[in-house]
Amino acid sequence: MKLHEYQAKQLFARAGIPIPKGAVATSADEAANAYEALRQARGGSGAFVCSVKAQLHAGGRGKAGGVLAAASAAEARAHAASLLGRRLVTKQTDPQGLPVSAVLLEERIGASTELYLAVTIDRFNARPVMLASRRGGMDIEEVAASEPSAIVRDPFDLTTGLTDAAADRVAAALGCTGTLAAPCRRLAQAAWAVFQTNDASLVEINPLVVTGDQQLLALDAKVTLDDNALFRHPDLAAWRDESQEHPLELKASRIGISYVGLDGTIGCLVNGAGLAMATNDIIKLSGGEPANFLDVGGGANVDQVTNAFAIILADPRVRVVLVNIFGGIMRCDWIAQGLLNATQRLAVTTPIVVRLEGTNVDEGRQLLGQAKGLNLVSEPDLASAARRAVELAR
Amino acid sequence: MSILVGRDTKVLVQGITGQAGAFHTEKMLEYGTRVVGGVTPGKGGTAVQGVPVFNTVHDAVRQTGANATVIFVPAKFALGAITEAIEVRIPLVVVITEGIPTLDMVRVRTQLAGTAIRLVGPNCPGLITPGQCKVGIMPGYIHQPGGVAVISRSGTLTYDAVYQLTRVGLGQSTCVGIGGDPVLGSSFVHLLGLFEQDPQTDAIVLIGEIGGTEEEEAAAFIQAHVTKPVFAFIAGKLAPKEKRMGHAGAIIAGGQGTAAEKAAALQAAGVTLIDSPAAIGETVKAGLSRRRATPKAH
Fold first, then answer.
1. What is the DSSP letter of A153?
2. In terms of pTM, does the model score above 0.90?
3. A197-242, pLDDT tens digit by residue?
């Protein structure tokens, strides 16, 4: 589960990671008040500039116009009004973009150096790892691709955590020496604390800046939580912002179906994630384009199949549905009956190509063969089913 | 006995009184697996399918001599169940449970370090040596004893691949689902080493998927250590790029993780790549008969 920047920064503040003074606003009036409050906190006299930052679950917002500078309460109000309620398109979103329902106002900081610091899990070695680079900022992905050695990876043990010595290595990798060494060590250890205590899968600070008066400050914050561990963190689970999720994917995930919308015309209903990916592959190999990835889950019962059909057919681009089920423990005759019930209940008119294999497959195919009034074709194997679906989608 | 499980394997079921545990205990017994005991705290002294239930793994192992355990315990309690099995030093631990927190699995890997315990999973279908022993949830009848090893990150796709092999007349030595989670007990690499040493295995089918670096690590290992023919299918050639907001995943992978990169790494290691998921059986069959037709150099 992704967190918004302002939520991630609450976790940072609790762990002692220094962040700029800021306030969240969900309306233009709140933004104007927040500007005024921040200005007062700064002493209230002289010029005061703050950033108005759109809150959305995607990076690249700076280049997309999602971060604006305000030098007065009126300007803060205007910027908030322009960002709130619109959909922001960045290079990390799809063309529809993501809605902005909150902005974060923060005192604008003059930075002399932009660094990068992150914590994640090295999957293969099953160890937490710190990533540190002196080349922080908006182009860290390009740095990673073109000059991987500019990013230092330092794995460490879960049981010992990020020791002083390991944290000192991170500080050295970031070039934080002298008076910055100790604060940087504490900051790296706090980043690990945020990761561990909240069961994160990613904690990323980019940029981590050194200010003009030699202070470290987390200007941006990205935290992704491990969905599997949310049961341990009901308070964090309540932070989920469903407006940032694809409506059909959200609907599917609520009922245990894994769905990802794609751009093609062939809807797919499959049991198992690997088989679902392979089904998309064979459609492509056969010259077609899948409309979705869909894993109906282990217990493909009648209700689940009905729900899956409803989700697939909610996409108006779908011209044909390819059902690919390998009945293991789940018997094919039950699945066939589920298919018939589902298509009747939903009055499906879209052509359906079915490939059933596995336990009780003959009984399953027989049931499908007897069905009347349905636009349903049964194919004996995956290759022929994919070819037929591609033909019907033309 | 192929690898990891065979006729002598005595299996414990942790979470045997739950719905999945009880159901699959019955299926494993039907297949001929020697399920010798079950564990559910508080249910000691009862029985499931005639299998005695114990309160602790320690009691169960002491009384039954079990040398493998399969875990169906819900994700919230899985860390405790796995830790118990590791503490009792059961040599093979198979975790079927899905949804275990990643940091819990990191902790498990820490516990495993320095032991000889082999952990398979989590979030996997388990493993089977056809005709001898099934420790998991795969349908038994699609398998047939033979010489082709199957290692996979997937469930139903593995069943499909195995069934294709069976129908073209190629039996299997052992089939292992390593699981789909980010942190696994066993990787392709661990199992490739075992299959390379196994006299019953004469070819290996590897079924991978996009994400992570499992397949790249496997390619490097195959290049250096595997002499048997290896065939691979990678699922997810056109899956959409993960909609992620951070960069650390991509940085960790160092540009690895796409199907094309995995395929290239495996091909460079001499692996035969299978393009279509419908062509797994026939590609392996054709590849093996070509090799038999070619006299060996030594």
1. E
2. yes
3. 999 999 999 999 999 889 999 999 999 999 999 999 999 999 999 9
Chain A residues lying within 8 Å of B182, measured CB to CB? 121, 123, 201
Q: Which of A160, A225, A228 is the best residue to mutate to test the B interface, defined by the most B CB atoms within 10 Å of its own CB?
A: A228
Inter-chain CB proximity B240 and A232 less than 8 Å: no
Name the band, by pLDDT with cuts 50, 70 and 90, for residue B243: very low
- Find which of B134, B164, B221, B252 to mutate to test the A interface (most A CBs within 10 Å of its CB): B252
Q: Where are the beta strands (DSSP E) in chain B?
A: 10-14, 34-39, 47-48, 51-54, 68-71, 92-95, 118-120, 126-129, 133-136, 145-152, 172-177, 203-209, 230-235, 272-273
Mind telling me how many Å the CA of B50 is from chain A's nearest CA?
A: 22
Q: What is the rounded distance in angstroms from the CA atom of residue B130 to the CA atom of residue A233? A: 43
- Contact indicator for B91, B68 with CB cutoff of 8 Å: yes
Please identify among residues 17-76 of chain B the ones whose CB lies closer than 8 Å to any CB of chain A: 23, 27, 75-76
- 3 state SS of A263: coil
Listed residue (B75, B155, B134, B138) closest to B108, CA to CA: B75
Q: What are phi and psi of A124, to 5 degrees?
A: -65, -40
- Phi, psi values for residue B172, rounded to 5°: -120, 145
Q: Give me the sign of the Cα torsion angle B244, B246, B249, B253.
A: positive
Q: Does B153 touch chain A (CB under 8 A)?
A: yes
d(CA B61, CA B52): 12
Residue A46 CB burial class (10 angstroms; 0-12, 13-18, ≥19): exposed
Alpha-carbon distance A125 to B183, whole Å? Answer: 8
- Selection from A200, A233, A240, A203 nearest residue B76 by Cα: A233
Residue with tokens 């220094």: A18
Tell me the C-alpha distance between A228 and B100, whole Å.
6
Residue B247 among the catalytic residues: yes
Chain A CB contacts of B105 under 8 Å are 126
* CA quadruple B22, B28, B34, B38: dihedral, nearest 10: -20
Residue in A116, A242, A259, A363 annotated catalytic: A116
B204 alpha-carbon distance from chain centroid:
13
The C-alpha of B96 sits at a distance from chain A's nearest C-alpha, in angstroms, of 12
Indicate yes or no: CB of B236 within 8 angstroms of CB of A359: no
Identify all chain A residues contacting B152, using CB atoms and an 8 Å cutoff: 274
A6 flagged as catalytic: no
For B33-65, write each residue's pLDDT tens digit: 999 999 999 999 999 999 999 999 999 999 999
> Cα B293 to the chain's mean position, in Å?
32
In the prediction, which pLDDT does B246 show?
A: 40
d(CA B135, CA A270): 25
B279 contacts in chain A (CB < 8 Å): 383
Measured CA to CA, the distance from residue B122 to residue B102 in angstroms comes to: 10
What's the CA gap between A305 and A295, in Å, rounded? 10
Question: With an 8 Å Cβ cutoff, are B182 and A58 in contact?
Answer: no
**Among B217, B235, B244, beta carbon nearest to A278:** B235
Average pLDDT over residues B84-88: 98
Instruction: Check if the interface score ipTM surpasses 0.90.
Output: yes
CA distance A205 to A187: 11
